[in-house]
From TrEMBL:
Organism name: Oidiodendron maius (strain Zn)
Domain annotation Dienelactone hydrolase: ranges: 35-248
Regions annotated as coiled coil: none
Signal peptide: none
Family annotation (Pfam families): DLH
Highest taxon of the lineage: Eukaryota
The protein's name in its UniProt record: Dienelactone hydrolase domain-containing protein
An example Gene Ontology molecular-function term: hydrolase activity
Length: 250
C-alpha cells in the first residue's frame, strides 16, 4: 500500500478564509449514508473532472484549487467527500498519536472498499447528467485512489499531484494518459520508477511529467497558501498543468 511521506506527517495545512464559489449536493449510495459532493464550474458540456482530495478532506484550499481549475478549463469539477465530514485534524500535525496511527487511520477511513462505491455513484451521476468523458485528479491520498480506480476503465485521463501511499507498481494498472506532478516531499526513487513504468505504456507519448521539486508536499491542496504570492503562483502553476493536460486529453 505504501505510506505517507514524511512531510505529510510534519507540515501542517494552511488555514484560509476562502469562500468556495460552487455548490454542495448529496448523492445516495446503496448500503451507505449519502455522500456530499462539491460541484463547481459550468454544468453544461460533456466533460467533467473528479477531484480526489487529501487527508484534510473538504479543506477550503483544496476547494479553491477546484474552483480555479474549473474556471481555467471550463469544465465542471466535482469533489466527493469520501470521508463524510471526517478528516484529519488540521491542528494535529505532527500527529500526537504518532505516524503509524495517522497512516492506519487514513487507510481505514479511505480504504478502496469504502471509496469504490462512492466513486461509482459519482460517475453514475455525471453520466446521467450527460457527461461523456471524465478525467480525475488526485492530491496526496487522492492520488492513491486514482491508481486504485484505474482498473475500472471509466476515465479518459488522470493527474496525480504530490502522491501519498504510492508504489512503483501502481503504474501497472494505468491504462489511460496520466500526468505526474511530484513535489520535493515524495520518495524520488518511487516517483522515478513509477514514471519509468508509465514510459513503457503504448500511450506514453500522451503522458506528461512536471516536477515541482521547489515545493513541499501538499502545495496544491490543503498545504497550499493562496495568500502567499509565491506559493499561490506555484499552486496555480500546478492547476494550469492540469488544465492543459485535461483539455488535450478529454
Amino acid at each position: 500500500m505504501g505510506s505517507l511521506p514524511d512531510q505529510c506527517c510534519d507540515i501542517p495545512p494552511f488555514k484560509s478564509n476562502y469562500t468556495p464559489v460552487g455548490k454542495r449536493i448529496t448523492l445516495d449510495v446503496e448500503g451507505k449514508t449519502p455522500i456530499e459532493v462539491y460541484l463547481t464550474g459550468p454544468s453544461d458540456g460533456i466533460h467533467a473532472i473528479i477531484g480526489l482530495y487529501d487527508i484534510f478532506g473538504m479543506h477550503s484550499n483544496t476547494l479553491q484549487g477546484a474552483d480555479y481549475l474549473a474556471k481555467q478549463c471550463g469544465y465542471q469539477v466535482i469533489v466527493p467527500d469520501f470521508f463524510r465530514g471526517w478528516s484529519w485534524d488540521v491542528d494535529n500535525i505532527p500527529p500526537k498519536e504518532g505516524r503509524p496511527y495517522l497512516n492506519a487511520r487514513i487507510q481505514e477511513r479511505g480504504s478502496w472498499d469504502l471509496v469504490r462505491p462512492d466513486l461509482l455513484e459519482v460517475i453514475k451521476y455525471l453520466q446521467s447528467d450527460g457527461k461523456a468523458t471524465l478525467g480525475a485528479y488526485g492530491l496526496c491520498f487522492g492520488a492513491k485512489k486514482i491508481a486504485q480506480s484505474a482498473h475500472l476503465e471509466l476515465f479518459n485521463a488522470f493527474v496525480c499531484a504530490h502522491p501519498s501511499f504510492f508504489q512503483p507498481q501502481d503504474a501497472d494498472n494505468i491504462s489511460v494518459p496520466i500526468a505526474l506532478m511530484p513535489s520535493d516531499g515524495e520518495d524520488k526513487a518511487v516517483m522515478d520508477e513509477f514514471w519509468a513504468r508509465i514510459q513503457k505504456k503504448p500511450f506514453a507519448d500522451k503522458c506528461y511529467r512536471e516536477n515541482f521539486h521547489d515545493m513541499h508536499h501538499g502545495f496544491a491542496s490543503a498545504r497550499s497558501n493562496w495568500d502567499d504570492p509565491r506559493l499561490a503562483q506555484r499552486a496555480r502553476d500546478a492547476y494550469n498543468v492540469m488544465t492543459k493536460f485535461f483539455k488535450e486529453r478529454l
